[in-house]
Specification:
The complex is a heterodimer.
Chain A (H helix, E strand, L loop, with lengths): L4 H11 L3 E5 L2 E14 L8 E11 L11 E4 L2 E9 L9 E8 L1
Antiparallel strand pairs in A: 1-2, 1-4, 2-3, 3-6, 4-5, 5-6
Chain B lengths: L3 H13 L9 E4 L12 E13 L8 E15 L3 H17 L2 H5 L3 E13 L3 E16 L8
Parallel strand pairs in B: 1-2
Antiparallel strand pairs in B: 2-3, 3-5, 4-5
Classes of the chains: A mainly beta, B alpha+beta.
């Protein structure tokens, strides 16, 4: 049996809302995920509520992207602070990384 | 009338809000709601444990000695969080130790420890908790009176 996983993956990034990653000379689509969390609680007080930013993208499109890499997401500069690949549970075709604003 | 503890906390707030305060720093008593990055740097004054002992062995001792731990929580958002925290920690020490025992509200003050913590989200954050011990006295029956 053969699969068209690569075609499905390409279609997924073409059909769903994405942002544009630029890393070196390469550009391509990625899913952007942002959420708020609270960090560094005080002794008797709440901490700081701030955003987290993550991207998911076809691994083959940015093979050199890793810890400390500088990239832009829709023109905004970020650094990779937590690269975790693969995240798709199959063959590493999709990577998922946490970013920090530069 | 305010308790001596309240007077000490008010004196701390006034001292740490003085003219020499580092630029941009907001100083306040502990609040329950969380902060957001745009509010940083912020310093919060918090009360820790307070212990109380008789000032003499007499069961009729009219005075008690109070030992109050006070913390200064400071948060910053900065790529170099530790460097950004340093002037605020130094300010905490200098302001309190040069305060004339908080205008006479305290009998003694010691600096005990500093705890550092850091995290990276979309931005880099740092927090220190700087602990002091404040020694003061009240009458046995009233926290509002020294004698």
């Amino acid at each position: 049996m053969t699969t068209d996983f690569d075609d499905d993956l390409a279609a997924m990034f073409e059909d769903l809302p994405t942002v544009t990653i630029a890393f070196g000379d390469a550009t391509g689509p990625a899913f952007l995920d942002t959420w708020d969390s609270e960090t560094l609680p005080g002794v008797q007080s709440r901490g700081v509520i701030a955003s987290n930013v993550a991207i998911s993208f076809p691994t083959a499109q940015f093979p050199g992207l890793g810890m400390g890499s500088a990239l832009t997401v829709d023109g905004v500069a970020y650094t990779v602070i937590d690269p975790r690949r693969p995240q798709d549970g199959v063959d590493g075709a999709v990577s998922h990384m946490l970013l920090q604003k530069v | 009338m305010a308790t001596l503890r309240q007077q000490i906390l008010d004196a701390l707030l006034e001292t740490l809000s003085g003219a020499d305060k580092p630029a941009g720093l907001t100083v306040l008593k502990a609040r329950k709601r969380p902060s957001v990055p745009g509010e940083l740097p912020v310093m919060m004054i918090v009360c820790g444990k307070e212990s109380v002992t008789r000032a003499s062995n007499s069961v009729k001792s009219p005075i008690v000695s109070r030992v109050l731990r006070i913390g200064l929580d400071v948060w910053v958002v900065d790529p170099e969080s530790q460097d950004a925290l340093e002037p605020f920690v130094a300010w905490g020490t200098a302001a309190i130790m040069d305060s004339g025992l908080l205008g006479g509200a305290a009998r003694d003050i010691t600096e005990d420890e500093i705890v550092w913590d850091f995290d990276m989200l979309e931005n880099s954050f740092g927090r220190t908790t700087q602990w002091f011990t404040v020694y003061y006295v009240t009458t046995t029956i009233s926290q509002e009176a020294k004698s």
